[in-house]
Design goal:
heterodimer; A: 5 helices; 2 strands; B: 79 residues; mainly alpha
Chain lengths: 163, 79
Amino acid sequence: MGCEHLEGIQAKHVARCPARGRRDVRAPSCRRGDGLRTWRLKAAVHYTVGCLCEEVASDREIRFSKQTIAAISELTFRQCENFAKDLEMFARHAKRSTINTEDVKLLARRSNSLLKYITEKSEELAQFNSEQRAKKKKKLEEENQKPVEPAEAAAAKKDNSSL
Amino acid sequence: MEGTSGGFRKELVGKLLQLHFKDDKTKVSRDALRLVAELLKIFVVEAAIRSVRQAQAEDLALVDVDQLEKVLPQLLLDF
């Protein structure tokens, strides 16, 4: 789902860039000098936005105009810029070069319900991670407790455990 | 959490953020990336749902840019 390459993008979600042909299209806005990379990213965003809007619309038996989807897509792209700059500054303020989940939670501070939702997601993630770590640790301990195993048995055991 | 409905892929979100970092050394942790993807998804879905509600309030079958414009100020304030 969602391909960043031009060829993979479904036509119904992304109209072709004016530079390539048809004028009467609603394409992600493409300023000269933005570069192909930016255009590809915008197109990928547009595709994802289109999918999400379609889900919302089909649940409610209503339709979005193409211009609306393009506008939301443009909006999202620009909001990313704000997010990126803020996140970078939050991390830097904490004297880190890697942005972490605390920085993202700060981003969501303006709406109480949003902050609550993001905090819950963050806790789910932390719990999931610790469960994964516990599983790995347990597996390592099991493997260590059994002393020297015949090579075939060890190989068979590794084949059986699927990730 | 991921994959319930549509959503932003982590690679895409990573590249989108990288595009606007001022410092080359800035990185994003894996969990932070997932959270930002979730945040973006909520942003889009909120924009969509609020526009739909506006259109429904105006008794329209098509959600056009006019409806989006009306819900935009509050949306941006909430984010």
